[in-house]
Design a protein that fits this description.
With 282 residues, the chain is mostly beta strands. The chain contains four helices and 18 strands. The chain has helices spanning 40-47, 81-86, 159-163, 220-228, and strands at residues 2-6, 13-17, 23-25, 73-77, 96-100, 105-106, 112-114, 121-122, 125-131, 147-154, 157-158, 179-180, 185-187, 198-203, 206-212, 238-240, 262-267, 271-279.
Length: 282
């Protein structure tokens, strides 16, 4: 099942995709695609609904972040060995985790805004994991049972803020619009193996990133388990699992985003994002 939220920012309604890729309105069935809808029992009830019985959403509606009320964004860094190499950093012995501010959340087709003072805004296509049930000290064997579904995240990063201003990476990861998510939340039953998904990103029609989740240093189950030993994961929390090589920082010479650029990115079975890059305006 592919779940979406559509409509103006702050007024999104719940929906799902039918077999023809059309958005059907779910708002009569659920208030929103929030934590209480992500539990396995609630998702099973939605799965039983015949999409043809739901009204069609108006065509051309904006798609928002496909999960409402995301409580925290936990990100994993350097989780592809070839990306660690291009960043000039060692492959970690344990997952490197950091946070992104939830104020960075943005829809999959909304513009990405280069923040004031930025000189090194960069792209990162990543597999996003949405938690479906409260998770503490999960074992690796049981970790995927706590996952509601998967989505695409672009972990947009300002490298000078991240690496040249001291402190933690969160400063370079949390500007407004730096976390485009979606277009859909694809429920776990539709993704047979999260470690066999191709992912890619283009800038202005040129392929910049190509990878596969099989190349992760730490797989999804290990990441969910690991994070749950340091913090409680709640339904609707989002984990973004690292990026393959090809980021702008790793090019020789480095190349960064500028106003007017367009990023297009996708993951097998999870759809595509397409966003324009714009300058910050007071």
């Amino acid at each position: 099942m592919k779940l979406v939220r559509y409509g103006p920012r702050g007024k999104e309604r719940a929906g799902l995709l039918d077999a023809d890729g059309r958005v059907r309105d779910l708002s009569r069935e659920v208030g929103d695609l929030s934590a209480d809808v992500l539990a396995p029992e609630a998702l099973a009830r939605l799965t039983a609904i015949d999409p043809k019985t739901l009204p069609l959403a108006p065509s051309g509606e904006r798609l928002g972040v496909p999960v409402a009320g995301i409580g925290k964004i936990v990100a994993v860094g350097l989780n592809y060995s070839d990306h660690a190499a291009e960043a000039g950093m060692p492959v970690p012995e344990e997952p490197v985790i950091f946070m992104k501010a939830t104020s960075a959340l943005s829809g999959p087709f909304d513009a990405v805004v280069i923040p004031r003072g930025s000189t090194k805004t960069d792209w990162e296509v990543e597999l996003g994991v949405v938690i479906g049930r409260t998770t503490r000290y999960a074992s690796v064997a049981d970790a995927l049972d706590h996952v509601s579904g998967y989505t695409i995240v672009n972990d947009v990063s300002e490298r000078s803020f991240q690496l040249e201003h001291g402190g933690q990476w969160v400063k370079g990861k949390s500007a407004d619009t730096f976390a485009p998510v979606g277009p859909w939340l694809v429920t776990r039953d539709e993704i047979f193996d999260p470690q066999s998904l191709g992912l890619w990103l283009d800038v202005n029609g040129e392929r910049r990133q190509t990878g596969n989740t099989r190349s992760m240093v730490f797989d999804v189950a290990r990441i969910v388990s690991y994070v749950s030993h340091f913090m409680t994961l709640h339904p609707a929390d989002l984990i973004t699992t690292g990026t393959p090589p090809g980021v702008g920082m790793g090019r020789k010479p480095p190349v960064f985003l500028k106003p007017g650029d367009r990023m297009r990115l996708g993951i097998d079975g999870l759809g595509e994002q397409d966003v324009e890059v714009v300058a910050y305006a007071d």
